[in-house]
Design brief:
alpha/beta, four-stranded antiparallel sheet, globular, binds adenosine-5'-triphosphate, ABC transporter ATP-binding protein, transport, ATP binding, cell membrane, translocase
């Protein structure tokens, strides 16, 4: 049997993700209960909510890093029981391997998929150029700025052609200008990928800029620790009442 190629690794559809009555927590601490959410293939779904509302916890469950206490997380109808290269994570903290160069970090998901050396090098170089880092292939992560390291993370997560990209405050540590540049870059690269994106942020304006749909995790009176979910439709139409939508999200927080 021949080794898989980049072509074979490329997917032509985003992942459909379903949270079916999912309850999540740590030890005796319940974080969320009976969460129901359908994320459509190719959708950019942004989760906002106050600190501690469980945004990262939901993302971990979708990534297969945290098992639900009740209910199921389904990817394409199949229960998620662990991590998969189909679902790539991008973290706020720098999750690059510090001893590997930019090129070798970006190549990693392709190597894991068994893509032959020459092909994975070409794909990694093309992604590095795509995120504006051509010429930095041989640098180590510590030789890069925070914004550049996030670009490498983005390139690495997309190089493996995942069907879903799960992003946990990826731009949270960046200054305002670098952050705005990364948001533009993300919108640009997402146009060319069919991957489903689940993006966690504190920032309502970032949510409105990136999202097809925004989910607000918020605490409601009488629900104690248990958060509820509110979906705000956000069609990409020029006449959308952004101010009204923003006010509504802030009201729910
Ligand atoms: N590994 C863990 N062990 C125990 N409790 C945890 C763990 N991770 C998170 N928690 C708790 O679960 C709750 C939800 O945390 P989570 O990180 O999902 O919230 P968040 O909305 O992402 O917060 P933030 O915006 O501050 O990152 C919090 O009360 C937190 O203290």
């Amino acid at each position: 049997m021949s080794a898989p190629t980049v072509e074979a690794a490329r997917v032509d559809a985003g992942l459909a993700i379903r949270l079916e009555g999912v309850s999540l927590g740590y030890g005796r601490h319940a974080v969320l209960e009976d969460l129901r959410l359908d994320i459509a293939p190719g959708e950019v779904l942004v989760i906002v909510g106050p600190s501690g509302s469980g945004k990262s916890t939901v993302l971990r469950a979708i990534a297969g890093l945290l098992a639900p206490r009740a209910g199921r997380v389904l990817a394409e109808g199949v229960e998620v029981t662990g991590p998969s290269s189909d679902r790539a994570m991008v973290f706020q903290d720098d999750a690059l391997l510090p001893w590997r160069t930019v090129l070798r970090n970006v190549e990693l998901p392709l190597r894991i998929r068994g893509v032959p050396r020459r092909e994975r090098r070409a794909a990694a170089e093309s992604w590095i150029a795509r995120v504006g880092l051509a010429g930095c292939e041989d640098r180590l992560p510590r030789e890069l700025s925070g914004g550049m390291r996030q670009r490498v993370q983005l390139a690495r997560s997309l190089a493996g052609a995942p069907r879903a990209v799960l992003m946990d405050e990826p731009f949270g540590a960046l200054d305002a200008q670098t952050r705005a540049g990364m948001q533009r870059l993300l919108l640009d690269v997402l146009r060319d990928t069919l991957a489903t994106v689940v993006f966690v942020t504190h920032d309502v304006d970032e949510a409105l800029l990136l999202a097809d749909r925004v989910v607000v995790l918020g605490r409601r009176e009488g629900h104690g620790d248990i958060a509820t979910v509110l979906s705000v439709p956000h069609p990409r139409t020029p006449d959308i009442d952004r101010a009204g939508l923003r006010a509504r999200i802030i009201e729910e927080l």
